[in-house]
Amino acid sequence: MADYFEVDLLGVETAKSGDAITLRYSVDGSMAVHVVDGGYVDTGDQVIEHLKKYYGTTVIDNIVLTHPDRDHANGLRKVLEVCTVRNLWINRPWIYAEELLPRFTNYNSVEALRRKLRSIYDATAILEDIANEKGIPIHAPLQGEAIGAFIVLSPSRSRYLDLIVESGKTPEAEKDEARGATLAGIFKEAVKAATSYIKSLWGEEYFPPEPTSRENEMSVIQIARLNGKRILLTGDAGREALQEAIDYAPYVGLTLPGIDYFQVPHHGGRHNVSTEILDKLLGERLADKSDKYRWYGVCSSAKADEDHPRKSVIRAVLHRGGHWSATESKNIGFAVEGVRIFV
After folding, report:
1. Quick check: 89 and 147 in contact, CB under 8 A?
2. What whole-number distance in Å separates Cα of residue 76 and Cα of residue 215?
3. Is the domain covering 4-342 a CATH 2.40.160.20 domain?
4. Domains of the chain: which residue ranges?
5. How far is it, in rounded angstroms, from Cα 207 to Cα 273?
6. Pair 243, 277: CB distance under 8 Å
């Protein structure tokens, strides 16, 4: 059988955007099924039905949870319960409790910190419980790990541990939440003022200075080369995660720019990317609009979600000669022959 690949972003959404990706590919005649995130509890069935209808199987070689947000994690409960899963890849903060304890001054017990982290990241903890009950092997998707044909570019182990401590959800950071909310309000007003006079001329770009959440920065970024095409999956990765991926790319033989299929992070959020990051990943802005597409940008965004995708992100894709596609209540994918839409 000739090698091939299919990557499908599913319209797993409520009034808010969610993420679920299914992949089927063959390398050297060996076929694999790969699932990345699963949307919400009520959309998990969509993942299973897509596997049955289009892939003809419910056997999954690898499931990857990119990060602990519920719009990515909760749908995987049903997938784990119903499907035959050979490997689950999740990052679990609590397994590093002993190593992290000295950094949490208000905790003096490893077990107490472990319980707290499990309660904070309960969506991930539930997946761990299901996997353990079913005997599914659990692995940590950290930088350098191979997941089938994919290589993890980010997060590195050290940066992941830093993100756990820095998160506004963890015990050490709880006291800073009110300040964070105040700063967010100030930034919002600054962004509003800055964008009020910016015109959408070709090539012009503006992205707010404030970053995305620390949980989003935990996102697993994966790269694969299938049928000569480079596929980059980003979850809800922010600028720090994307920069770490860029820095690590040479170590896995990846020359940038040059991504052929790019999952636009965080439903097209403008706090996740920057002009500099996109230049490094996808190439610099073109002088003029082009009728020919050089690569594909695909985004998971709900039709009812007024906040995503941001127009500035859509324009940034077009500025670099990319073809823009978004789920918007439908499944959309890309394969060897290009982009396909499942109505």
Report:
1. yes
2. 18
3. no
4. 4-342
5. 7
6. yes
